[in-house]
Structure formats: structure tokens, C-alpha cells
Amino acid sequence: MSNNQSNHLPLKLNLNSCKHLALTLDWPIEKICYFIKNQSNNVQEFTLKQIKNGKLKERVVYNPSPQYKRLLRATNSKLFRRAVLPQGVLGGVIGKSIDDLAKVHCNQEAVLSMDLKNFFPSIKSGRVVKFFRAAGCNPFIAGLLTDLVTLNGSLPQGFPTSPMLANLIAFNLDIQHIAQGQKNKLRRTRWIDDIVFSGRLKDLTINVKSLLGAIKPHGFQLNNKKTDYRVRSNNPIVGGLDVSRKIPHIPVVVIDRVCEILYECKLSGVEVVQTAYESDWFGRKKDLKSSLKSRIRHIARYNKTEAEKLTEIFNSIDWVIKPQI
């Protein structure tokens, strides 16, 4: 972080002693140091598996022990949540939802979506300690906090502190993008690693290159495979919702897929479909009935008529799974 960047920070901590840190977090400094020294015994690693668009995707998530998680949550609420983030930074912020994200971009002529590659792992300990130093912590406290919230040299996915801390470190990227958006009459949001711009087709087309070019100078990498540029007639998707109209709605392909599964249950039987049903992120088989019910409930929030039709099919299915003989 350059000196010029450090003048633009959303948070000042000014922590210069262990006593001050302990009082602020309301945790004994001995306990804080214990979890730093014993991270390996207090963090469980999971490989989350998800089938998306027919492809198996895996990612590593780290789950802190209950007590370590309590300490991290205290750090998040008593330090990081004091920050005032730029407008449009929504992921990891209390009270913000996918609805807030999608509504910003509804009914715009064109939408540009970009993804920051390996977002959490790309934020290394060096950047974190520089942030704490710029926020007013002395070198020792900056190092202590960095050791508390990082794992294996970077921000770990799964720690309660990671989303908000990542927001703080991405602050200068947000400021530059917002300035570019305001200058060119474009709307801009960021949900963790997903950045979206929308506006008039002409304005967005002219500025695509400069918007994408702002990523690398701020220490992030663009995931070209997930960069998507769509005009309104091509049904742009933001946060899993179609924003081509005045209000967000569920994409037709999602509704059709739920309908297909329901009809397969009627034709082939629940047992057959349950056996083939996708696993959840932890590699366990999902409960077919509960999962479909949840999907229909989600669809009902945006597409009431379609949800009513799906509910009618759902209620006509015999959900009793007969024991295998």
C-alpha cells in the first residue's frame, strides 16, 4: 500500500499496546496469543464440492473451532465493522443481501460482470500487516492481528473476519472504480469477489477496458473466464438473478431445471431421483424433498406465478421413500 493510498482508509484503529487490544476485544491477551500459537489445532480444513453447470467444483474452506471463532467474531464486530465502506460494497456487510445487489442493476441497457481470481488467497499476510500499520497499529500489534486473522500466509475462506477485512484491503480499488462509474454515469457494486457495472450501452462499451484495467494495479487478478458483458436483451445475471426487467427475477433456466426434477420424481419415483441427486458442499447427499421445497420458496420471492405451478407439481408427488427389498 503506497503512502498516497494510505491517506484514504475507511478505518482507524490506533492500537499501540496489548492492553489496549485486549480491552477493545474484551479478550485476555493470553487467550489471543494462545489461538495464534495453536492455530493448527483450532482450524479444520474442508474441501467443499459443488456440481455447477455439470462440472464438479472444489474449494478449500477453513472452519475455526468454536472458541477461536468467537474471538474472530469479536475482532470482526469490535474492529472491522466500525469501518464506513463505499456505497455499493455489499458482500460481508450486515443487513445487505443479494436483493440489494441485483436491484442496483435492474433494467439497465448493459451489464459488465467481473470476478477477482482467488480473492481471499490472493490477499497475503504482507498486505494485511501493511493495512494494520496504515490503520494506526504499531508494528507488534499489526503483526499480532495479522497472525490472528490469516492462515498459511493469506486470508482464509471460512474465517468470520475474512470478508470484512478483504473489503477494507480492496477499499482503494472500490474508490477508483466508483469514481470511474460516477464520471461515466455507471452503477457499480462489489459482492466479495464479484464486481458489477451497469448503465447505458454506449457509456459501458467505451469504458470496459479502463474498468478491467483498474484491477491489477490494486494487487488483484481478473478471472477472465468469469468476465461477462451482456446487453439487456441477453438477460444479464447478477447474484443469480435476472436483472433485465425493472425488478429482479429468477432466470428461466433455473425454474425449468426445478420443473424437470419434479417431473422426473413423478415419472421415475423419488427413490431414483434421490439416488442421483447432487451432493452438497460437504460431500453429503442432499435431502431431495427439503432441497426442492427450499428452491421453490426462493423462486416464490421473485416469480410468484411460476412458484405456484411448481408447488402444485410438488404437492402431487408421493414423497414416501419405500424401503429397498
In short:
The chain is an alpha+beta fold. It has 15 helices and 8 strands.
Strand-helix topology:
Elements: H1 3-6, H2 18-25, H3 29-37, E1 43-52, E2 55-64, H4 66-78, H5 98-104, E3 110-115, H6 119-122, H7 125-134, H8 139-149, H9 162-169, H10 171-183, E4 187-191, E5 194-199, H11 201-213, E6 228-231, E7 237-238, E8 241-242, H12 252-268, H13 270-276, H14 288-300, H15 304-315
Antiparallel strand pairs: 1-2, 3-5, 3-6, 4-5, 7-8
Helix pairs in contact: 7-8, 12-13, 12-15, 14-15
Word description of this protein:
This protein is an alpha+beta fold. Helices cover 46% and strands 14% of the residues. It has helices spanning 3-6, 18-25, 29-37, 66-78, 98-104, 119-122, 125-134, 139-149, 162-169, 171-183, 201-213, 252-268, 270-276, 288-300, 304-315, and strands at 43-52, 55-64, 110-115, 187-191, 194-199, 228-231, 237-238, 241-242.
Kindly list the characteristics that best describe this protein.
alpha+beta, 8 strands, four-stranded antiparallel β-sheet, 14% strand, two-stranded antiparallel sheet, 325 residues, disordered N terminus
